[in-house]
């Protein structure tokens, strides 16, 4: 909320790395909605994605052939850099305003929020949607401690080397919308190297303009 500084030499180096992948025979540009199907049919050997795709990936490949690992390092600007992910957390908030003082409605909303965050609900969310629980009891259950995905997520979220907590602020909606063309543009050639810095400056300005 206090501003960002993507428009610098490191930002330009990242965009150049994205452009360089066009000539990397080991890299395939696959949309997220096609990643799992191409992984399952052997069109790609590995995909870099999030836990949300894990259940479908297991179905596509078979659990006995499935492996997961922390994000790998890459070479950017002549340096080995550890890729990082945003660590997402769920928030359940109750807004009392729409209830207009209706005590039963407010109580029902709190009851729903309590149910969705309860131990049993988190265990079910992990089982059905691979959402790693925050509840300590569920985390220590054999279902979670023996799960390959949960182990990797635990490793990544336990260190700032691998993750940054995703801010729950309005600027993030702009971040996702505006960053998408910055990722694809260098790779596709729609953004020329001479324009990298200008595009990053505009990115900073767009984020700063979001209220």
Describe the structure.
It is a single chain. The chain is mainly alpha-helical. Helix content is 50%, strand content 7%. It contains 10 helices and 4 strands; from the N terminus they run αααβββαααααβαα. The chain has helices spanning 9-20, 32-40, 54-61, 103-117, 119-129, 136-139, 142-145, 148-157, 171-188, 196-209, and strands at 73-76, 79-82, 85-87, 163-165. The strands form 2 sheets. A two-stranded antiparallel ribbon has the order 1-2. The mean pLDDT is 93.
SSE topology sketch:
Blueprint: H1 9-20, H2 32-40, H3 54-61, E1 73-76, E2 79-82, E3 85-87, H4 103-117, H5 119-129, H6 136-139, H7 142-145, H8 148-157, E4 163-165, H9 171-188, H10 196-209
Parallel strand pairs: 3-4
Antiparallel strand pairs: 1-2
Helix pairs in contact: 1-9, 2-3, 9-10
What are the salient characteristics of this protein?
211 residues; two-stranded parallel ribbon; two-stranded antiparallel sheet; 50% helix; globular; mainly alpha; 10 helices
